[in-house]
Amino acid sequence: MKGRDILKGMLGATDQARSDAPTSAHAHRPTGAVRAMNLSLGKLGEEAAAAKSLRESIAAGQMVVELEPGSVEMSFIRDRIPIDVDADFETLKLSISESGQQVPILVRPHPEKANTYQAAYGHRRLKAALDLTIPVKAIVKNLTDEELVLAQGQENGPRLDLSFIERSLFAYRMLQHSFDRDTIAKALATDKPEVSRLLQVAQTVDAEVILAIGPAPKVGRPRWLALAEKLQDETLLRKAQHEMRKATFAGADTNKRFDMLLRSLEPRTSERRTVETVRTKKGLPIASMIQERNAVKITVISPAFADFLVKKMAGLVVAFEAENKAETKG
Q: Is-above-0.70 flag for pTM?
Protein backbone atom coordinates (compact mmCIF):
# COMPACT_ATOMS: atom_id res chain seq x y z
CA MET A 1 0.00 0.00 0.00
CA LYS A 2 1.33 3.40 -0.87
CA GLY A 3 2.13 5.87 1.90
CA ARG A 4 -0.69 8.18 0.73
CA ASP A 5 -3.20 5.33 1.05
CA ILE A 6 -1.88 4.38 4.48
CA LEU A 7 -2.36 7.99 5.68
CA LYS A 8 -5.88 8.10 4.26
CA GLY A 9 -6.69 4.87 6.04
CA MET A 10 -5.43 6.24 9.35
CA LEU A 11 -7.51 9.37 8.98
CA GLY A 12 -10.54 7.30 8.08
CA ALA A 13 -10.04 5.14 11.14
CA THR A 14 -9.78 8.25 13.32
CA ASP A 15 -13.00 9.64 11.91
CA GLN A 16 -14.71 6.27 12.49
CA ALA A 17 -13.43 6.20 16.08
CA ARG A 18 -14.86 9.70 16.66
CA SER A 19 -18.23 8.70 15.24
CA ASP A 20 -18.29 5.62 17.49
CA ALA A 21 -17.28 7.54 20.66
CA PRO A 22 -19.93 8.34 23.30
CA THR A 23 -21.68 11.69 22.81
CA SER A 24 -22.19 12.47 26.50
CA ALA A 25 -20.85 15.73 27.93
CA HIS A 26 -18.21 13.84 29.89
CA ALA A 27 -16.60 12.52 26.69
CA HIS A 28 -15.40 15.95 25.54
CA ARG A 29 -14.69 17.55 28.95
CA PRO A 30 -10.94 18.16 29.39
CA THR A 31 -9.39 16.71 32.48
CA GLY A 32 -6.34 17.25 34.62
CA ALA A 33 -3.91 20.01 33.79
CA VAL A 34 -5.70 20.98 30.55
CA ARG A 35 -8.99 21.59 32.36
CA ALA A 36 -7.29 23.58 35.13
CA MET A 37 -5.50 25.72 32.56
CA ASN A 38 -8.75 26.44 30.67
CA LEU A 39 -10.53 27.45 33.87
CA SER A 40 -7.65 29.70 34.88
CA LEU A 41 -7.58 31.40 31.50
CA GLY A 42 -11.35 31.90 31.59
CA LYS A 43 -11.22 33.37 35.06
CA LEU A 44 -8.37 35.68 34.13
CA GLY A 45 -10.36 36.85 31.11
CA GLU A 46 -13.40 37.60 33.23
CA GLU A 47 -11.31 39.44 35.82
CA ALA A 48 -9.59 41.46 33.12
CA ALA A 49 -12.96 42.46 31.64
CA ALA A 50 -14.27 43.37 35.09
CA ALA A 51 -11.15 45.39 35.85
CA LYS A 52 -11.47 47.23 32.56
CA SER A 53 -15.13 47.97 33.27
CA LEU A 54 -14.23 49.20 36.75
CA ARG A 55 -11.50 51.51 35.40
CA GLU A 56 -13.93 52.94 32.86
CA SER A 57 -16.56 53.49 35.56
CA ILE A 58 -14.07 55.23 37.83
CA ALA A 59 -12.83 57.41 34.97
CA ALA A 60 -16.39 58.37 34.09
CA GLY A 61 -17.29 58.92 37.71
CA GLN A 62 -20.00 56.30 37.50
CA MET A 63 -18.75 53.78 40.01
CA VAL A 64 -21.63 52.73 42.23
CA VAL A 65 -20.61 52.04 45.81
CA GLU A 66 -22.51 51.37 49.02
CA LEU A 67 -22.10 53.95 51.78
CA GLU A 68 -23.35 54.19 55.31
CA PRO A 69 -26.13 56.82 55.06
CA GLY A 70 -24.91 58.40 58.29
CA SER A 71 -21.67 59.35 56.52
CA VAL A 72 -23.52 61.40 53.87
CA GLU A 73 -24.63 64.96 54.59
CA MET A 74 -27.26 66.95 52.73
CA SER A 75 -26.22 69.47 50.08
CA PHE A 76 -25.01 72.79 51.47
CA ILE A 77 -28.02 74.34 49.70
CA ARG A 78 -31.41 72.80 50.45
CA ASP A 79 -33.87 72.68 47.57
CA ARG A 80 -36.86 71.05 49.28
CA ILE A 81 -39.10 72.37 52.01
CA PRO A 82 -39.62 69.57 54.55
CA ILE A 83 -43.18 68.61 55.47
CA ASP A 84 -44.48 66.56 58.38
CA VAL A 85 -46.48 64.04 56.34
CA ASP A 86 -45.06 63.10 52.94
CA ALA A 87 -47.07 60.30 51.28
CA ASP A 88 -44.72 60.20 48.27
CA PHE A 89 -41.73 59.64 50.54
CA GLU A 90 -43.49 56.80 52.36
CA THR A 91 -44.22 55.18 48.97
CA LEU A 92 -40.56 55.53 47.97
CA LYS A 93 -39.39 54.02 51.25
CA LEU A 94 -41.75 51.05 50.85
CA SER A 95 -40.51 50.48 47.29
CA ILE A 96 -36.86 50.49 48.42
CA SER A 97 -37.60 48.12 51.32
CA GLU A 98 -39.29 45.65 48.95
CA SER A 99 -37.25 45.95 45.74
CA GLY A 100 -34.04 47.67 46.79
CA GLN A 101 -32.66 51.03 45.69
CA GLN A 102 -32.83 51.08 41.90
CA VAL A 103 -31.24 54.48 41.22
CA PRO A 104 -28.03 55.60 42.98
CA ILE A 105 -27.63 59.04 44.50
CA LEU A 106 -24.79 61.41 43.56
CA VAL A 107 -22.30 62.48 46.23
CA ARG A 108 -18.93 64.14 46.48
CA PRO A 109 -16.22 63.71 49.13
CA HIS A 110 -16.94 66.33 51.78
CA PRO A 111 -14.64 69.31 51.16
CA GLU A 112 -13.98 69.80 54.90
CA LYS A 113 -14.61 66.48 56.68
CA ALA A 114 -12.68 63.24 56.29
CA ASN A 115 -14.56 60.01 55.56
CA THR A 116 -17.72 62.03 54.94
CA TYR A 117 -19.67 62.79 51.77
CA GLN A 118 -22.04 65.51 50.62
CA ALA A 119 -25.10 64.70 48.51
CA ALA A 120 -25.81 66.56 45.28
CA TYR A 121 -29.13 64.82 44.67
CA GLY A 122 -31.09 61.85 45.92
CA HIS A 123 -31.83 63.29 49.36
CA ARG A 124 -35.11 61.39 49.65
CA ARG A 125 -33.40 58.09 48.77
CA LEU A 126 -30.72 58.93 51.32
CA LYS A 127 -33.32 59.58 54.02
CA ALA A 128 -35.13 56.35 53.12
CA ALA A 129 -31.89 54.35 53.51
CA LEU A 130 -31.28 56.07 56.84
CA ASP A 131 -34.79 55.20 58.06
CA LEU A 132 -34.43 51.60 56.85
CA THR A 133 -30.90 51.32 58.32
CA ILE A 134 -29.46 49.98 55.05
CA PRO A 135 -26.47 51.16 52.97
CA VAL A 136 -27.23 53.74 50.30
CA LYS A 137 -26.04 53.17 46.73
CA ALA A 138 -24.13 56.17 45.45
CA ILE A 139 -21.97 57.49 42.64
CA VAL A 140 -18.96 59.33 44.09
CA LYS A 141 -17.56 62.20 42.02
CA ASN A 142 -15.23 65.08 42.77
CA LEU A 143 -17.47 68.14 42.28
CA THR A 144 -16.94 71.83 42.75
CA ASP A 145 -19.65 73.84 44.53
CA GLU A 146 -20.95 75.03 41.16
CA GLU A 147 -20.99 71.52 39.67
CA LEU A 148 -22.84 70.25 42.72
CA VAL A 149 -25.67 72.82 42.55
CA LEU A 150 -25.96 72.38 38.78
CA ALA A 151 -26.34 68.62 39.20
CA GLN A 152 -28.75 69.16 42.07
CA GLY A 153 -30.98 71.57 40.16
CA GLN A 154 -30.90 69.72 36.85
CA GLU A 155 -31.80 66.41 38.51
CA ASN A 156 -34.96 67.85 40.10
CA GLY A 157 -35.97 70.36 37.42
CA PRO A 158 -36.89 68.04 34.50
CA ARG A 159 -38.99 65.85 36.81
CA LEU A 160 -40.93 68.91 38.03
CA ASP A 161 -40.35 67.66 41.56
CA LEU A 162 -40.03 71.13 43.04
CA SER A 163 -42.98 73.46 43.54
CA PHE A 164 -42.84 77.12 42.53
CA ILE A 165 -41.91 78.32 46.02
CA GLU A 166 -39.25 75.60 46.41
CA ARG A 167 -37.67 76.71 43.12
CA SER A 168 -37.94 80.30 44.32
CA LEU A 169 -36.27 79.51 47.64
CA PHE A 170 -33.58 77.40 45.93
CA ALA A 171 -32.76 80.32 43.61
CA TYR A 172 -32.58 82.72 46.58
CA ARG A 173 -30.30 80.40 48.57
CA MET A 174 -27.95 80.09 45.59
CA LEU A 175 -27.87 83.89 45.35
CA GLN A 176 -27.01 84.07 49.06
CA HIS A 177 -24.07 81.72 48.38
CA SER A 178 -22.79 84.20 45.76
CA PHE A 179 -23.72 82.21 42.66
CA ASP A 180 -24.40 84.49 39.69
CA ARG A 181 -27.71 84.52 37.84
CA ASP A 182 -26.31 82.59 34.88
CA THR A 183 -25.46 79.67 37.18
CA ILE A 184 -28.84 79.91 38.92
CA ALA A 185 -30.59 79.83 35.54
CA LYS A 186 -28.60 76.75 34.47
CA ALA A 187 -29.29 74.95 37.74
CA LEU A 188 -33.03 75.55 37.36
CA ALA A 189 -33.03 74.92 33.57
CA THR A 190 -34.65 78.29 32.93
CA ASP A 191 -33.79 81.81 31.75
CA LYS A 192 -32.70 84.90 33.67
CA PRO A 193 -36.10 86.69 33.48
CA GLU A 194 -37.70 83.69 35.19
CA VAL A 195 -34.90 83.72 37.79
CA SER A 196 -35.80 87.35 38.53
CA ARG A 197 -39.44 86.38 39.01
CA LEU A 198 -38.47 83.53 41.33
CA LEU A 199 -36.21 85.79 43.37
CA GLN A 200 -38.89 88.47 43.59
CA VAL A 201 -41.09 86.17 45.66
CA ALA A 202 -38.38 84.67 47.87
CA GLN A 203 -36.95 88.11 48.63
CA THR A 204 -40.39 89.53 49.49
CA VAL A 205 -42.08 86.78 51.51
CA ASP A 206 -40.52 86.17 54.92
CA ALA A 207 -38.75 82.76 55.10
CA GLU A 208 -40.63 82.04 58.34
CA VAL A 209 -43.92 82.26 56.44
CA ILE A 210 -42.68 80.12 53.53
CA LEU A 211 -41.42 77.33 55.79
CA ALA A 212 -44.62 77.41 57.87
CA ILE A 213 -46.77 77.01 54.76
CA GLY A 214 -44.56 74.39 53.09
CA PRO A 215 -44.05 73.57 49.39
CA ALA A 216 -47.70 74.23 48.38
CA PRO A 217 -47.39 72.56 44.94
CA LYS A 218 -50.78 73.87 43.77
CA VAL A 219 -49.89 77.53 44.40
CA GLY A 220 -48.14 79.51 41.67
CA ARG A 221 -46.42 82.86 41.37
CA PRO A 222 -49.49 85.21 41.16
CA ARG A 223 -50.95 84.04 44.49
CA TRP A 224 -47.56 84.09 46.22
CA LEU A 225 -47.11 87.67 45.00
CA ALA A 226 -50.58 88.57 46.31
CA LEU A 227 -49.58 87.19 49.70
CA ALA A 228 -46.25 89.01 49.58
CA GLU A 229 -48.01 92.32 48.92
CA LYS A 230 -50.26 91.89 51.95
CA LEU A 231 -47.39 90.95 54.23
CA GLN A 232 -45.74 94.35 53.60
CA ASP A 233 -48.31 95.71 56.06
CA GLU A 234 -46.95 95.20 59.60
CA THR A 235 -50.46 94.72 60.97
CA LEU A 236 -51.20 91.97 58.47
CA LEU A 237 -47.82 90.34 59.09
CA ARG A 238 -48.62 90.09 62.81
CA LYS A 239 -52.02 88.67 61.92
CA ALA A 240 -50.31 86.05 59.70
CA GLN A 241 -47.95 85.09 62.50
CA HIS A 242 -50.92 84.66 64.83
CA GLU A 243 -52.68 82.44 62.25
CA MET A 244 -49.58 80.24 61.86
CA ARG A 245 -49.58 79.47 65.57
CA LYS A 246 -53.08 77.95 65.48
CA ALA A 247 -53.46 74.18 65.79
CA THR A 248 -55.84 74.12 62.82
CA PHE A 249 -53.13 75.68 60.66
CA ALA A 250 -50.48 73.17 61.76
CA GLY A 251 -52.83 70.25 61.13
CA ALA A 252 -53.75 71.24 57.57
CA ASP A 253 -51.91 70.10 54.43
CA THR A 254 -49.51 72.50 52.76
CA ASN A 255 -51.89 73.83 50.05
CA LYS A 256 -54.65 74.34 52.62
CA ARG A 257 -52.23 76.25 54.85
CA PHE A 258 -51.62 78.76 52.08
CA ASP A 259 -55.35 79.23 51.52
CA MET A 260 -56.01 79.63 55.25
CA LEU A 261 -53.26 82.21 55.65
CA LEU A 262 -54.27 84.28 52.64
CA ARG A 263 -57.93 84.20 53.66
CA SER A 264 -57.07 85.31 57.20
CA LEU A 265 -55.49 88.47 55.79
CA GLU A 266 -58.58 89.50 53.83
CA PRO A 267 -60.52 92.33 55.53
CA ARG A 268 -63.77 91.35 57.20
CA THR A 269 -66.98 92.78 55.75
CA SER A 270 -67.01 95.60 58.33
CA GLU A 271 -63.39 96.40 57.45
CA ARG A 272 -63.75 96.45 53.66
CA ARG A 273 -61.89 99.28 52.03
CA THR A 274 -61.78 100.77 48.56
CA VAL A 275 -58.42 101.36 46.92
CA GLU A 276 -58.24 103.93 44.14
CA THR A 277 -55.21 104.99 42.15
CA VAL A 278 -54.95 108.68 41.20
CA ARG A 279 -53.51 109.08 37.70
CA THR A 280 -52.58 111.90 35.33
CA LYS A 281 -54.23 112.28 31.92
CA LYS A 282 -51.41 110.18 30.49
CA GLY A 283 -52.22 107.40 32.95
CA LEU A 284 -49.21 107.84 35.20
CA PRO A 285 -49.96 107.03 38.87
CA ILE A 286 -49.22 109.90 41.25
CA ALA A 287 -51.11 108.84 44.38
CA SER A 288 -53.38 106.19 45.87
CA MET A 289 -56.39 106.57 48.13
CA ILE A 290 -57.57 103.88 50.54
CA GLN A 291 -61.08 104.56 51.72
CA GLU A 292 -62.11 102.69 54.85
CA ARG A 293 -65.26 102.93 56.91
CA ASN A 294 -64.18 105.94 58.99
CA ALA A 295 -61.15 107.36 57.17
CA VAL A 296 -59.39 107.94 53.89
CA LYS A 297 -55.66 107.41 53.58
CA ILE A 298 -53.88 109.21 50.73
CA THR A 299 -50.40 108.09 49.72
CA VAL A 300 -48.61 110.41 47.29
CA ILE A 301 -45.87 108.81 45.19
CA SER A 302 -45.11 111.84 42.99
CA PRO A 303 -42.86 114.47 44.69
CA ALA A 304 -44.19 117.17 42.35
CA PHE A 305 -47.81 116.36 43.21
CA ALA A 306 -46.89 116.31 46.91
CA ASP A 307 -45.47 119.83 46.64
CA PHE A 308 -48.61 120.91 44.77
CA LEU A 309 -50.87 119.56 47.54
CA VAL A 310 -48.85 121.29 50.26
CA LYS A 311 -49.15 124.62 48.48
CA LYS A 312 -52.86 124.21 47.78
CA MET A 313 -53.85 122.72 51.14
CA ALA A 314 -54.84 126.02 52.77
CA GLY A 315 -56.99 126.94 49.77
CA LEU A 316 -58.60 123.50 49.76
CA VAL A 317 -59.58 123.92 53.42
CA VAL A 318 -61.17 127.33 52.67
CA ALA A 319 -63.05 125.86 49.70
CA PHE A 320 -64.18 122.92 51.86
CA GLU A 321 -65.52 125.19 54.59
CA ALA A 322 -67.29 127.46 52.08
CA GLU A 323 -68.94 124.47 50.42
CA ASN A 324 -70.04 123.02 53.77
CA LYS A 325 -71.60 126.37 54.84
CA ALA A 326 -73.48 126.58 51.55
CA GLU A 327 -74.82 123.02 52.03
CA THR A 328 -75.83 123.79 55.62
CA LYS A 329 -77.80 126.91 54.59
CA GLY A 330 -79.44 125.00 51.79
A: no
